[in-house]
Amino acid sequence: MEFTPRISQILKILLANGTPIGKQEIAEELGVSKRTVQREFEYLELCIRKYNLKLVNYKGKGVVLEGSVEDLVKLEENLREEQYPDAADREGRRRRLLFELLRDRTPRKLFYYSQMLGVSEATAGSDMDSLCDWLEESHLGIVRRPGYGVILEGDERDYREAMRRFIEETAGHSDAYSSGDITGEIFAEALLDAADSGIYSLLEGDTVRRVDKVLRQLNEPKILQLADSAYAGLVIHISIVIERLQQGAALNSVPPEMGNLEFWDDYDLAVRILEAMEKEFEIEIPRGELSYVLLHIRGAKMAYTGEEKELPGDLGDDQVLSMIDRMIDVYNRDIADELKEDEEFLRGLLVHLRPVLVRLSTGLRIHNPILDDIKEEYGDIFEACRRAAAVITEETGYEVNEAEVGFLAMHFGAAQERVRENKQYTRKVSIGIVCASGFGVARLMMTRLKDKLGKETGAGQRQDNCHGL
């Protein structure tokens, strides 16, 4: 959606008329005051700029939309496809408002948003208040100044992280993140259409497709090892970089806590990625953007196949191994020994924890699309993992958020299930008794075996198995 409902109505009138029409006439057709229409015209010209159209005012006659036939047809087609939020759907309405605040950092009056959402200004203001907690988590705030309007305020890095978080939360359950076969155009289209049929697309489709194409053409082993969700996140991350640079918003400085970037693992990979993007988009990418992309690569989830060659870093790191040992004890002492012998679990957890520590140390957020399901369906495991995560906090000083706890629950829960299955498994055997003293002695021996072992092994379940010779 690109226009408020009112602006969409005005544009439809202008397109249908095709000749100059007065604002009073438009107001009468809409059933509103001329002043209301005049207020909408303050934003209308900005809205049609991307279509290469303009409003021309003919004195004494009115206004008319002018531009090429192709551009006018394109606008008309987009207006037919417009979808508007249901005013009664409070959650959808507020998400729509958040999207608009993130999409356009131009100061807008509250009236603009109330008209877009089809609610009163008081309701729009209440909706805006409800977004404060979400925005504060992203270190952003809403600024409202009389005569100036409403706008998001915050650091460029935080603004980008909020964009990425919004996209991931909105598209979290889509095939673009869950499919095991994400390729080229299919991936790009799925990513764009994932969030409510594209209503909440903050990124241009062409940018996403080109970023995806460049990454695949690089054929870098580290990129190929990324989990599907992490790869999708990397595409989003770089697409945001490209579009923000094209809009004149660049990160020119490296965060002090990152120090000398050359000493970071994957520094050379980040350089190769951005050099390829510079060539593809014909732009210059400043060094500050390198740190932004490098952080995402270092904090990305890796795919785990169970093969040792897939494991990143030094697996002999005593501190990490010791931390995992303590986490297992805190998680569940009753099955701690079995968990510590589960090689698949230990290796998978090692792979998982390395990017976790990077994310925690740099404040990089990760979205867990099934967090609510985990908390509801596996509440006991989640709470046990919350206790286990406290070990990470004790060792590193970093607080572990619920999204990360949810991912830990997936690892611990799968291992716990394997322990349960192993304890339940019983191998059934058939026993035949051959006794030279005759059938009676053989039957007596069978009865004793059945009493002794029958419940554990299934011995003596069929008398036909016992023969006296």
Question: Could you explain the architecture of this structure?
Answer:
This protein is mainly alpha-helical and 469 residues long. It has five domains: 5-81, Winged helix-like DNA-binding domain superfamily/Winged helix DNA-binding domain (Arc Repressor Mutant, subunit A); 90-154, Arc Repressor Mutant, subunit A (Orthogonal Bundle), CATH 1.10.10; 175-298, PTS-regulatory domain, PRD, CATH 1.10.1790; 310-424, PRD domain (PTS-regulatory domain, PRD, Orthogonal Bundle), CATH 1.10.1790.10; 434-468, no CATH class. The protein contains 23 helices and six strands. The strands form three sheets. Strands 1-2 form a two-stranded antiparallel ribbon. It has a two-stranded antiparallel sheet with strand order 3-4. Strand 1 and strand 2 (62-66) form a beta hairpin. Helix 12 packs across helix 14 and helix 20 packs across helix 21. The longest helix has 23 residues, at 402-424. The N and C termini lie far apart (88 Å). 29% of the residues are buried.
Instruction: Give the radius of gyration.
Output: 31 Å
Shape: elongated
And the CATH topology of the largest domain? PTS-regulatory domain, PRD
Estimate the helix proportion, in percent: 55-70%
**How is the main sheet built?**
2 strands, antiparallel
Query: What portion of the residues fall into strands of 2 or more residues?
Result: 5-15%
Give me the side-by-side strand order of the main sheet: 1-2
**In the residues, how many domains can be counted?**
5
Distance between the termini: 88 Å
The CATH first-level class of the largest domain comes to Mainly Alpha
Q: Would you identify the CATH architecture of the largest domain?
A: Orthogonal Bundle
What is the typical, i.e. mean, pLDDT? Answer: 76
Q: What is the overall number of helices?
A: 23
Low-confidence stretches: 172-188, 194-200, 304-316, 456-469
> Count the strands?
6
Order of helices and strands: HHHEEHHHHHEEHHHHHHHHHHHHHHEHE
Structural class: mainly alpha
